[in-house]
């Protein structure tokens, strides 16, 4: 037997044959997440964990044999955080799907494989709401959401994933299972380890259970849609809105993304607009009308061509769905490099204008959509994968946009995580001292470096 | 010269004589925080930092000379987190008081010595609000709030300190200054180091600047006050309220604390009541009336003797002030051991009843006040400091109440921190594996153990 066969046999012995997959036709589907990292490795095996005990068994075995483990949720990550490494294990939690909601403490205890949309549904059965809403909410898992500190559209008012995580069960590199936090709104006992694991992208431990804070169901929302001939009028309107109130959603689409969505969905969007804003208020009662009026007036004052207000939830949701569909719609026009840069709000106009300059200079199309209310943008760099020169220019633009965001006091990733695709830029953002601090913590928790090697660090 | 004189001379040379205090009459005031730890040591010197550079200079010097450093904010801590250690430095940040508010990004950049009430005032100048409101908000500092992940009365709806911290500047044990996070609502770049330092009680680094998220000013609030003959009716009412809505405040006082406050303030509280609840709604417009009606009805249905509703902010605030005054009021009746135990809400009645049993068994008075809406209680154990036997029984009750909270799935500290007074119980709550994880992180960041030794760990 080869060394590889020996390893697989020992893995099967350790964790049980039922959850070990080595069929290359199947494991091939676990080499990449949605970032489609071309440098993805070929894993030794995929393990489909069904329980915390399975995850623990994998880590005990991996520590003994010094085999790297790449944890994976739904595989919808956009930064290559779940890219397989050669000779490693891909440990998928997709089969761990239990959920229990306690309406009295307003918490949910969830296994990592449950999809975000399923968590929302379980909460809704009790009249409760789990707010974070990545655009991929129908296909991303809560484990991945926790591991990347995922965001979404409502975060401008309701915060991001970490704001809703009260407790975690985590399996450490050496197989130790730790329970952190719990169903308590307040807990100052010991270090904030729960929060340390949120957004740690699998490099410190594997999240096997999440205790989530839930809030009362979102009240009905009204939606404001505004189109602008000039991009700078739209960014002016964004600042005017956030200065006067806290919208429940404030999304931005540029001309390229408007047209890509209109091509795909034929919903009558204004193809001539330079930018479109979609804003929401979900304040109770008459206050909602006040807020939509304020937002509509801010758009008009900033020079909007057309401003439309609807109290019909379905009509409003159609526009949010159009915004969410922008990434797949733009992807129909070519391959994508997907950015996630964010800046403090006053720098948003500079960022959007700077991106346009980079696109011009590199001769590539960059569609821009944004969670505008919190300064988090998703420039989508489009390239023809058959055109090597264009692909190279697209990659240059990818780096330049991150460098631009950093120069504006921003971040290379607002909600997707660093993964493997953005790690070269992380030191530029946080500085060498913070990288050293990061390495010290990584080394303290995973001295052999077997947890998701190559991600973040 | 003695070794001590040599050390002080070298400290003065390193950080400047202007900020080094060795006058024993002054340093005596820095030996203890409000926990009044009888085992407090005598520091070598107190350093009054005026800048991050001062803090850095102290840590460089302390690392070189292996001298322990106890960071201190306003000294209002209740767990002995800032108790001086023999031969160490007490590093106070009380003179670092700068604040800048940016209304566009809705953030404030604040030095650690500014008081919570001053942060609120600076935000209010721009129509903004910093929610966390420890009862000590007029005398506690934002640095201490960050270091303990402080809570307060409004946290039941608005969350705790960590939910408002977007960025930190921290000086590490070796004098390295790191900048973590920043004025961005979303940032998934690298490990969540900002959140790790929140609640770390000075054992990982010294917080020298905080970037806070602010929100629009709180709308006017209405207040519901209800008194109950039976304690269990009050806890029933708490569950009924939190099951149906999210109050902006939901406070509890027992008979002992009601009477202590009434003795001090003569405001006409019902001395015969077994319990009093003070609840608030700050929802906009008509929704507020709906919520106060729902809360009042829940109290009546649970068996309240009297239910009083007021839309007058001053009148409502008088009751909140009465609740805040409970600790000093009870303290007039004897020395206090102050608990901060929290439990998941359904266990609140068991906790309160269990505390009464412990008080009976130990023959001590335990007054109970609580941030009832989030299950965080402050049992106040009263003893006569001249009565050594009673003091011993009070200490036994102190431990037994924490053990009770742990047995109910709760925490030994909801918002005050572990400090030195509660650290013996921390392993019982979090388990040995989490303690080991905690030690690994502590060792990675402070290998010589000079940062606040004896606190938490």
TrEMBL record, chains A, B:
EC number: 1.1.3.15
Alphabetized Gene3D superfamilies for the sequence: 3.30.465.10, 3.30.70.2740, Uridine Diphospho-n-acetylenolpyruvylglucosamine Reductase, domain 2, Vanillyl-alcohol Oxidase, Chain A, domain 4
GO molecular function terms listed in the Swiss-Prot or TrEMBL record: (S)-2-hydroxy-acid oxidase activity
Cofactor: FAD
Name this polypeptide is given: Glycolate oxidase
Organism: Rhodococcoides corynebacterioides
Domain of life the protein comes from: Bacteria
Keywords of the record: FAD, Flavoprotein, Oxidoreductase
InterPro entries: FAD-bd_oxidored_4_C, FAD-bd_PCMH, FAD-bd_PCMH-like_sf, FAD-bd_PCMH_sub1, FAD-bd_PCMH_sub2, FAD-linked_Oxase-like_C, FAD-linked_OxidoTrans_Type4, Oxid_FAD_bind_N
Residues of the FAD-binding PCMH-type domain: 39-217
UniProt keyword Flavoprotein present: yes
């Amino acid at each position: 037997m080869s060394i590889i066969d020996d390893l697989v046999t020992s893995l099967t012995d350790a964790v049980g044959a039922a959850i070990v997959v080595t069929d290359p036709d199947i494991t091939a589907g676990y080499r990449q997440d949605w970032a489609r990292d071309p440098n993805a490795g070929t894993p030794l095996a995929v393990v489909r964990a069904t329980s915390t005990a399975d995850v623990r068994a994998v880590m005990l075995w991996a520590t003994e044999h010094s085999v790297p483990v790449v944890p994976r949720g739904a595989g919808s990550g956009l930064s290559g955080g779940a890219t397989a490494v050669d000779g490693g294990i891909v440990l998928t939690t997709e089969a761990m799907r239990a959920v229990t909601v306690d309406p009295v403490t307003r918490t949910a205890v969830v296994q990592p494989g449950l999809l975000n949309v399923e968590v929302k549904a379980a909460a809704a059965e009790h009249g409760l709401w789990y707010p974070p809403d990545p655009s991929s909410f129908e296909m991303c898992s809560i484990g991945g959401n926790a591991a990347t500190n995922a965001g979404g559209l409502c975060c401008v008012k309701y915060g991001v994933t970490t704001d809703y995580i009260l407790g975690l069960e985590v399996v450490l590199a050496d197989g130790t299972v730790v329970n952190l936090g719990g169903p308590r709104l307040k807990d100052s006992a010991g270090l904030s380890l729960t929060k340390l694991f949120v957004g740690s992208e699998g490099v410190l431990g594997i999240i096997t259970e999440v205790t989530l804070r839930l809030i009362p169901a979102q009240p009905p929302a009204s939606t404001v849609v505004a189109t602008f001939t000039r991009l700078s009028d739209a960014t002016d309107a964004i600042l005017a809105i956030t200065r006067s109130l806290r919208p429940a959603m404030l999304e931005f689409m540029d001309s390229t993304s408007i047209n890509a969505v209109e091509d795909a969905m034929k919903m009558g969007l204004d193809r001539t607009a330079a930018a479109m804003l979609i804003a929401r208020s979900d304040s109770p009662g008459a206050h909602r009308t006040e807020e939509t009026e304020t937002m509509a007036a801010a758009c008009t004052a900033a020079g909007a061509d057309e401003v439309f207000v609807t109290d019909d939830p379905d009509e409003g949701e159609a526009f949010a769905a159009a915004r969410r569909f922008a990434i797949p719609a733009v992807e129909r026009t070519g391959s994508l490099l997907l950015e996630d840069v964010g800046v403090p709000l006053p720098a948003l106009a500079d960022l959007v204008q700077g991106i346009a300059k980079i696109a011009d200079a590199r001769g590539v199309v960059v569609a821009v959509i944004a969670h505008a209310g919190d300064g988090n943008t998703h420039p989508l760099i489009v390239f023809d994968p058959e055109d090597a020169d264009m692909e190279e220019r697209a990659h240059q633009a990818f780096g330049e946009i991150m460098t631009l965001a950093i120069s504006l006091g921003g971040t290379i990733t607002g909600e997707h995580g660093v993964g493997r695709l953005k790690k070269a830029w992380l030191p530029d953002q946080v500085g060498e001292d913070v990288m050293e601090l990061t390495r010290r913590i990584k080394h303290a928790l995973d001295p052999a470096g077997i947890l998701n090697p190559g991600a973040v660090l």
